[in-house]
Design goal:
Structural class: mainly beta
Radius of gyration: 38 Å
Strand order of the largest sheet: 22-21-20-28-23
Keywords: Acyltransferase, Cell shape, Cell wall biogenesis/degradation, Peptidoglycan synthesis, Signal, Transferase
Pathway: Cell wall biogenesis; peptidoglycan biosynthesis
Shape: elongated
CATH architecture of the largest domain: Beta Barrel
Number of domains: 3
InterPro entries: Big_10 (IPR041280), LD-transpeptidase (IPR050979), LD_TPept_cat_dom (IPR005490), Transpep_catalytic_dom (IPR038063)
Strand content: 35-45%
Organism: Streptomyces millisiae
Protein name: Ig-like domain-containing protein
Distance between the termini: 107 Å
């Protein structure tokens, strides 16, 4: 048996009311009726808490001085990273572009406890902090570093920074990279190793006058050889003064002094006699002495000379080449090559006359000025005999 449902008749007013209600529900659901019922538990999604990672682990010991310290952040960014030694000195470091990582930009000191304090935040700005500590490996031995330019010095355009070490260096790239040079205006500066205990730095061409040079010696903690670490951490700044390049012509027995591109004086000279010829090439003044003793025994010339009071002497090579005053030579200046390899200028005994050519040149020269010798019957001076790397081609410099 089938039951029939009775139909209810809907009046016109009732139908209109139902239609209005239906339209209201449809409009609230949006999207042409494709919505869903509202969930009263729905709300804004909470940002995940930032997760901070620090390597090495808290309490680690014998940590290498480079390559181990790293800080990272997940689900957020790093807002502060401070790594300090027991004296509170901070380790320099650098954030990644997205601020999710940090690494030091220098080596750590040996046998030192460091504290790492980090702050990070998530997308909602909620901060998280973490602090750890670790101790670096002790050095089995250390090496010292010495350099040739004092802080605040004004030097000539030919100056080279020369750094020497008291022990052979095996990790030459690491030590070279730990000597950071920044200039204003910017110029490329390269380092070149002469053997394994000396590295010199220079630009391709002579420095531009007025250049400011900042040297950051970050050799501390660098492993120069297995178990042997550097100790130097120092900043040195120097300025390039006016340009002065003097050319000694052995054929004409003259020296032309050029200041900022203009010849300011031509001076008669004497250079090396036959058999004692002066080196050719570009040489840099590295030392100035109002008076000094010159003894042939010290440069392999036996007892040929021993002069206790050579005036206005300026060193051009490690092997003993000087440009200096000469009070014993008579009329040789501009007339005869009579020295044992040095460049001689007329002077008086005692260095007391400021008007002699030697005294004038001494007073008008800076450490780092260039003296170039041409037309001598000898080889070009070796680039490591003094600060004379300008005699090496740029494509070979740094190799």
């Amino acid at each position: 048996m089938r039951t029939r449902r009775a139909r209810r008749r809907v009046s016109g007013a009732t139908a209109a009311l139902l239609g209005a209600l239906l339209l209201t529900v449809t409009a609230c659901s949006g999207g042409g009726g494709q919505g869903r019922d509202a969930d009263p538990d729905d709300g804004p999604t909470e940002a995940a808490e930032v997760s901070i990672s620090i390597a090495p682990d808290d309490g680690a010991t014998d940590v290498p001085t480079s390559g181990e310290l790293r800080v990272g952040a997940e689900d957020g960014t790093l807002t502060e990273v401070r790594v300090t030694d027991p004296e509170g000195t901070e380790v320099a470091g650098e954030l990644t572009e997205d601020a999710t990582g940090w690494e030091p930009t220098e080596h750590l000191a040996n046998d030192t406890e460091y504290t790492v304090a980090v702050v990070g935040e998530n997308a909602a700005g909620t901060e998280a902090t973490r602090t750890t500590s670790f101790t670096t490996v002790a050095a089995g031995a250390t090496f010292t570093s010495n350099w040739n330019i004092s802080d605040g010095a004004e030097v000539g355009v030919g100056m080279e920074l020369s750094v020497t070490f008291d022990t052979p260096i095996e990790n030459t790239d690491a030590v070279r990279d730990a000597i950071q040079i920044v200039t204003e205006p910017p110029v490329e500066v390269r380092g070149h190793w002469f053997g394994n205990q000396r590295i010199d730095f220079r630009p391709e061409e002579y420095w531009e006058p007025g250049t400011e040079v900042d040297v950051r010696l970050r050799i501390r903690g660098v492993e120069g050889a297995p178990g042997v670490y550097g100790t130097a951490r120092e900043d040195v700044s120097f300025t390039i003064g006016r340009s002065q390049i003097s050319t000694v012509d052995v054929d004409t027995l003259t020296m032309d002094v050029v200041r900022d591109g203009e010849s300011i004086r031509t001076i008669p000279v004497t250079t090396g006699a036959p058999g004692y010829e002066t080196w050719n090439g570009r040489m840099v003044i590295t030392e100035k002495l109002v008076e000094t003793r010159m003894n042939g025994d010290t440069v392999g010339y036996g007892g040929e000379y021993d002069i206790p009071d050579v005036p206005h002497a300026m060193r051009l090579s490690t092997s003993g080449t000087f440009i200096h005053g000469n009070y014993w030579g008579g009329d040789v200046f501009g007339n005869e090559n009579a020295s044992h390899g040095c460049v001689g200028l007329r002077d008086v005994r005692g260095a007391g006359d400021p008007d002699t050519p030697a005294a004038w040149f001494f007073a008008n020269s800076l450490i780092g000025d260039v003296v170039e010798v041409v037309n001598s019957n000898d080889d070009v001076i070796a680039p490591d005999n003094g600060l004379n790397g300008w005699n090496m081609a740029w494509e070979d410099w740094g190799v």
